[in-house]
Design goal:
With 269 residues, the chain is of the alpha/beta class. It has eight helices and twelve strands. It has two domains: 141 residues, NAD(P)-binding Rossmann-like Domain (Rossmann fold), CATH 3.40.50.720; 111 residues, Rossmann fold, CATH 3.40.50. The chain is 33% helix and 21% strand. Bound molecules: NADP nicotinamide-adenine-dinucleotide phosphate.
């Protein structure tokens, strides 16, 4: 359907909805535990008609109690068309702090459609007494910053970040990912742990000791679910190469679940 046609259809249906007192049609961009928790909190609230959107990166995503669609929209244009066709009235971007592309797209698309956008953004982790962090701007920079002497490195960078370590083949790696890496280049000495968070401190301490890890490489993801590895590194005096967040475009910043629920409450009333 050409865009102007679908835009007109969307506008007419929106007017009909307001006469019929229909629910607020809400899109949550997900792929995080915050998105899942928000969906769980809203799933029984009949004022919202909810769609969760996942990129489709994880083979078996955690079960969600709401209608879920999977896969990209096809850039900004595809997202605009989808928002109009689905008569979406508000969007919450609850994607991961490193998912900057989809956030740029949703900022542009919601602006074009004049739809309110709330961005659920977790606070980054901050360095505490006892932490030995070296902050780097990207995964490639983390690979370059590894010591010259061969050592044992724990990688918590997501499976798509692993290829960056091919250029440092002298090290021995342990990588934790949700799914197998698929067909991407990998450093030769790499052990995989397929696990999904949340993780606890006792297990993280045991893991870093068992694999005799000398360096931890992590994205600054923020949040509680994967923080115990940072605490474990602090306890064991293991240095951390901390990858800084990209600039992530946003709508109204909502820094926790309650803030997101309050924002929605104002929009629906
Ligand atoms: P990205 O670089 O920002 O986005 C790449 C493309 O993937 C987007 O242009 C979009 O495709 C599609 N996409 C991303 N998130 C989507 C969503 N929730 N629903 C539908 N399409 C989506 O994203 P990414 O870093 O690859 O992350 C992908 C997903 O994994 C996100 O949902 C994110 O929350 C989750 N995640 C990412 C990380 C990370 O470290 N990056 C960690 C944990 C979870 P189109 O242009 O075709 O629309």
């Amino acid at each position: 359907m050409p865009m102007m046609d679908s835009q007109r259809v969307g506008a007419v249906l929106l007017v009909l909805d307001s006469f019929l007192g229909a629910d607020m049609r809400l899109l949550i961009l997900g792929g995080t535990s915050e998105a899942r928790k928000l969906a769980e909190r809203l799933s029984d609230d009949t004022r919202f008609e909810l769609t969760m959107s996942l990129a489709g990166r994880t083979v078996l995503p955690a079960a969600l109690p709401v209608h879920t669609r999977v896969g990209g929209f096809g850039g900004v244009r595809g997202l605009i068309e989808w928002l109009i066709e689905q008569r979406i009235e508000a969007v919450i971007d609850a994607t991961h702090p490193f998912a900057d592309q989809i956030s740029a797209h949703v900022v542009a698309a919601t602006k074009a459609c004049n739809i309110p956008l709330g961005s659920l953004v977790r606070a980054p982790w901050v360095q505490r007494v006892g932490d030995e962090w070296v902050c780097v701007p990207s995964t490639q920079d983390a690979a370059r910053a590894l010591p010259i002497t061969p050592c044992r490195v724990f990688l918590s960078v997501g499976r798509l970040g692993l290829s960056a370590f091919c250029e440092r083949a002298e090290h021995s790696y342990v990588a934790r990912t949700i799914d197998p890496p698929g067909d991407i280049p990998l450093p030769p000495d790499l052990t995989f742990l397929f696990e999904r968070g949340p993780f606890d401190l006792a297990n993280e301490l045991a893991l870093l000791k068992r694999y005799e890890i000398n360096v931890l490489v992590s994205k600054n993801s923020g949040g509680a679910a994967t923080y115990p590895k940072i605490e474990a590194a602090r306890d064991l005096k293991i240095p951390v190469l901390m990858i800084a967040r990209p600039l992530k475009p946003s709508g109204t910043i909502l820094d926790n679940l309650e803030a997101a629920l309050n924002w929605l409450e104002k929009k629906v009333s």
